Amino acid sequence: GDVFTFDPGFTSTAACESDITYIDGDKGELLYRGYPIDQLAENSHHLEVCFLLLYGELPTAAQMADFEARVTKHTMVHEQMHYFFRGFRRDSHPMATMVGVVGAMSAFYHDSTDVNDPWQREVAAIRLIAKLPTIAAMAFKYSVGQPFQYPRNNLDYASNFLHMCFAVPCEEYVVNPILSKALDRIMMLHADHEQNASTSTVRLAGSSGANPFACIAAGIACLWGPAHGGANQACLEMLREIGTVDRIPEYIARAKDKNSGFRLMGFGHRVYKNFDPRAKVMKESADEVLGLLGIENNPTLQVAKELERIALEDEFFVSRKLYPNVDFYSGIILDAMGFPTSMFTPIFALSRTVGWIAQWKEMIADPTQKIGRPRQLYIGAPRRDYQDVRHR
Ligand code: CMC
User: Which reaction does it catalyse (predicted)?
Assistant: First the structure.
């Protein structure tokens, strides 16, 4: 028979060629279209990064204005979608709601589901980037029993999201620029990460010709797992559970014990065998934001810093090249902004949407791509004859 390469977890299989994102895991380097992530985090903003990922170049001022106008035109969701939300239990996890609602987008926007039409693909990309913050904010509002807030197109991307999450009809809500800048930076840091599990899911779903809304819903479902995007929620919950620095050694010991089933959340990465460059920016950002908000004595941040210090001196973590990843510090910032932990992964999802859609567009336009169809090494029963129930 055929001979296959056994590669569980795809640790040594390149499934595509891509010119979007580059990671050097040993150096701890991440480039979007060639630009280092720390330079983008310092100087750019999320919508500009969206343009860069989608079209390959930084926009001119005119291109940026045009892109922003196209995105803001699509920030509202179909009014009928409000009823779709109301079908969910109030206590649904916002990620559960998002998987369903984003999946339903293909029922609401079927004029942009023809994957063979480049114009429809473009409209779908813009719709997804524009509407994901609205959908995530609605999932949040629904879970706390507050009325949905319509998007405000005079606000920038991150400020509009904060507005949709935290404004209420009975009072004036003014977006704090410190928070909106920090959130925008979190969005940029999460915007793409080459062929990670959720992006590969989007590509695999898309390889069958499935429409982009269905593909992104599949990506959101994959992202939810605690080994992937769900780690930011799990990490902050872990830091809170640890609570005080004196309890850190106990958790380090548990993480080192393979039989405990416990891992240090926000630590380790399949590709980075050095500091995750996103974690570096995130740590500085956490210090800056908490300082500006006057809550630098935040006990969770103290625990995180001490845990990082102890782990980076421990032979178990050093020998396995386990460093803090992007999720280690992001939750501390999101918590300081007032988000409950259940919103951390939805924020990751809306930030990663541009990466998913850029990768999906690249795949659709790539003539070398065919339907994704891994093979297997069969280890089950050999051929045998059916037995009547009386003889079993
Ligand atoms: N705590 C304790 N031990 C760990 C951890 C951890 N967080 N991560 C890896 N290890 C150990 C693991 O037990 C194994 O040890 P040994 O070689 O002795 O068996 C070794 O390190 C390699 O681990 P692996 O499971 O083979 O590595 P992987 O590449 O399959 O997994 C990972 C990568 C990110 C899933 C894993 O490091 C992990 O579970 N981390 C915690 C969850 C997390 O923070 N995920 C977010 C990743 S970054 C953002 C994102 O992708 O969404």
Answer: oxaloacetate + acetyl-CoA + H2O = citrate + CoA + H(+)
In angstroms, what is the span from residue 268 Cα to ligand 1's centroid? 5
pTM: 0.95
Burial 165-192 (b: 16+ CB within 10 A, else e): bbbeeeeeeebeeebbbbbbbbbbbbbb
232 within 8 A of 331, measured Cβ to Cβ = yes
Residue 21: what are its φ and ψ, rounded to 5°? -130, 140
Instruction: From 179, 137, 37, select the one nearest 349 (Cα to Cα).
Output: 137
Q: Classify 17-226+341-365 by CATH class.
A: mainly alpha
Ligand 1 atom 42, closest CA: 227
Atom 15 of ligand 1, residue of closest alpha carbon: 320
Active site residue 385: no
Annotated catalytic, 193? no
Each residue's pLDDT tens digit in the chain (392 positions)?
688 899 999 999 999 999 999 999 999 999 999 999 999 999 999 999 999 999 999 999 999 999 999 999 999 999 999 999 999 999 999 999 999 999 999 999 999 999 999 999 999 999 999 999 999 999 999 999 999 999 999 999 999 999 999 999 999 999 999 999 999 999 999 999 999 999 999 999 999 999 999 999 999 999 999 999 999 999 999 999 999 999 999 999 999 999 999 999 999 999 999 889 999 999 999 999 999 989 888 899 999 999 999 999 999 999 999 999 999 999 999 999 999 999 999 999 999 999 999 999 999 999 998 999 999 999 999 999 999 999 99
- 370: how many CB neighbours lie within 10 A of its CB? 8
Number of neighbouring beta carbons within 10 Å of residue 366:
12
- Ligand 1 in reach of 325 Cβ (< 6 A): yes
Question: What are the sequence ranges of the domains in the chain?
Answer: 17-226+341-365, 231-337
What is the CATH number that goes with domain 231-337?
Answer: 1.10.230.10
